[in-house]
């Protein structure tokens, strides 16, 4: 299991005056304790033209990288695998399975897409750090690409589409991922990548 690097970076508030406040859950929501932070935290996810992806801090430091096509593996900044994401075959609405490291022996969570009028909706079923099975709900607007992540009906995460810089021709999509305190950043990255996959399908 990789060790998270959040403690190395200065935290950046994920709120603005026009946005609702993210709510810290009653206990940590995490796959790996090293990837949560005691304060709200934001990172930038960039999906590249070859379907790989990079995650950077607000200061531009490389934090994670995603590589692969059908099976995507998320690596930390030192190249150690964190999780891999696979889309289940014959899944009409899209169902994804996330495993520890590069293998398939330890299933960490599943993400299931649901039809929703005027937007997107996903259900995340995961095994939390304390071995408790929990569910999160992901709701988004397809038109403005603004997505919120809920746990027990409170907002614990947010995904906003950014406009790539015109000079950056290798970046196809860019998102700001905001996590409430003690919400796993790896979880937010995986949700974002699955959402991006669904958006591309229309």
UniProtKB/TrEMBL annotation:
It comes from the Eukaryota. This is Tubby C-terminal-like domain-containing protein. The lineage of its organism: Eukaryota, Fungi, Dikarya, Basidiomycota, Agaricomycotina. It holds the Pfam family LOR. SUPFAM superfamilies: Tubby C-terminal domain-like (SSF54518). Belongs to the LOR family. Signal peptide: none annotated.
């Amino acid at each position: 299991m990789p060790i998270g690097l959040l403690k190395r970076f200065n935290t950046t508030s994920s709120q603005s005056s026009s946005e609702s406040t993210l709510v810290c859950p009653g206990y940590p929501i995490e796959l790996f304790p090293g990837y949560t932070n005691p304060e709200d935290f934001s990172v930038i996810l960039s999906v590249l033209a070859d379907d790989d992806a990079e995650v950077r801090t607000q200061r531009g430091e490389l934090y994670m990288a995603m590589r692969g096509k059908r099976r995507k593996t998320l690596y930390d900044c030192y190249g150690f695998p964190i999780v891999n994401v696979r889309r289940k075959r014959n899944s009409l609405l899209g169902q994804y399975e996330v495993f520890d490291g590069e293998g398939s022996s330890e299933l960490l969570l599943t993400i299931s897409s649901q039809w929703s009028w005027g937007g997107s909706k996903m259900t995340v079923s995961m095994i939390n750090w304390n071995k408790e099975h929990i569910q999160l709900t992901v709701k988004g607007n397809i038109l403005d690409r603004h997505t919120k992540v809920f746990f027990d009906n409170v907002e614990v995460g947010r995904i906003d589409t950014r406009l790539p810089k015109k000079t950056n021709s290798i970046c196809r999509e860019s998102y700001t991922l905001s996590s409430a305190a003690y919400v796993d950043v790896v979880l937010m990255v995986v949700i974002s990548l699955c959402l991006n996959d669904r958006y591309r399908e229309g």
